[in-house]
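> call design_seq(struct)
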């Protein structure tokens, strides 16, 4: 079984707990509002990273990232964008297995029409009194995608 890490809305903060939660992952998806290049550098020390630009990502470093990405990991195809509300103007390609997004800072897992919609929540500075969260996804060829939300203890 392969495990991937899913994170969003770090806003320039890479918490030490992330390395523990993502230990052993084969790939990491960052769904935007990265905040600073050093966050991605830290994540790349754990595993390869696919990242997209969120609405707060600006400056020279952010130009290296697109608004959306499609990535195949194992037999699964993931469509990554920051704000799920933009799905209408930036539609997902046919045949995807999961939509990974962020922006709201609220973790969410749901399935519609056999597509997993996963928002890992926010792993950055605490906002709106919401929990600090990220997710892992178990990729098993014999079953559906299995997301797990993780709550971090940070303040």
């Amino acid at each position: 079984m392969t495990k991937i890490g899913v994170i969003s809305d770090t806003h320039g903060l890479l918490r030490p707990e992330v390395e523990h939660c993502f230990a052993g992952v084969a790939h990491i998806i960052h769904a935007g509002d990265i905040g600073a290049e050093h966050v991605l550098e830290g994540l790349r020390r754990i595993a390869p990273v696919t990242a997209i630009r969120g609405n707060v990502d600006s400056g020279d470093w952010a130009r290296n990232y697109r608004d959306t990405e499609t990535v195949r990991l194992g037999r699964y195809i993931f469509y990554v964008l920051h704000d799920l509300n933009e799905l209408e103007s930036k539609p997902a390609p046919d045949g995807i297995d999961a939509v990974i997004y962020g922006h709201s800072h609220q973790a969410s897992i749901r399935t519609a029409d056999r597509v997993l919609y996963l928002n890992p929540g926010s792993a950055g500075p605490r906002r709106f009194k919401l929990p600090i969260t990220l997710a892992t996804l178990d990729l098993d060829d014999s079953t559906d995608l299995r997301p797990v939300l993780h709550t971090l203890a940070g303040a």
